[in-house]
């Protein structure tokens, strides 16, 4: 399976409209996604991971027949490349409020090579310690595991987002649901980037899964983003890692490696709790 991880950067384009940024990112997918089976984008690239004041204005409805402005160009890019596209996450806006009375969610969207929505995942763990996401967004309650379609078929895939990475119990639940690959879009800031790098390897090692993690780069809303997107093997080997600017990783992985590693070192069979 050939994977492209597109580490999108903010910078001079930090004031782009949703439509302008979507067109730019779709261009990156068209340019760098060709010849890949799976393409992955970062968290909240259209709204800004720390730009909470802009979330309402940049929110997107996923309930209509047509895709919203942040996703429609990406669906076209997926069709152009013929790849499965993890479109990162958007600020989803719903007509009906959630349990806490809010209308916004941090929602990841997985698109098929035909541009149709395959899965959505609402982020379970909201970052902000009472501010930011917990103040403005609802928390997701459902875990999502899916069989990726061709051309990216071969690995059962669990979806998660950014701050979820700090909660190992979520990933163990995904493994119990059959996951062999974790996709992790993120907006992880530079001051805590060493935690990001360590936790990616930890989730891969303890669950014997591939981890494909796509972070943002550049600076927005006063926060310097950390970059360091990565692809990690089920043994914890770093197969590829980006720097701190806009960058694309292109990595070939062998789906059979998960089963080989789990059979050769069956640590998951020894769980007691």
From TrEMBL:
Keyword tRNA processing: no
Keyword Hydrolase: yes
One GO molecular-function entry: hydrolase activity
Gene3D superfamilies: Carbon-nitrogen hydrolase
Positions of the CN hydrolase domain: 1-255
Keyword annotations: Hydrolase
Family: Belongs to the carbon-nitrogen hydrolase superfamily. NIT1/NIT2 family.
Name recorded for this polypeptide: Hydrolase
UniProt source species: Ornithinimicrobium tianjinense
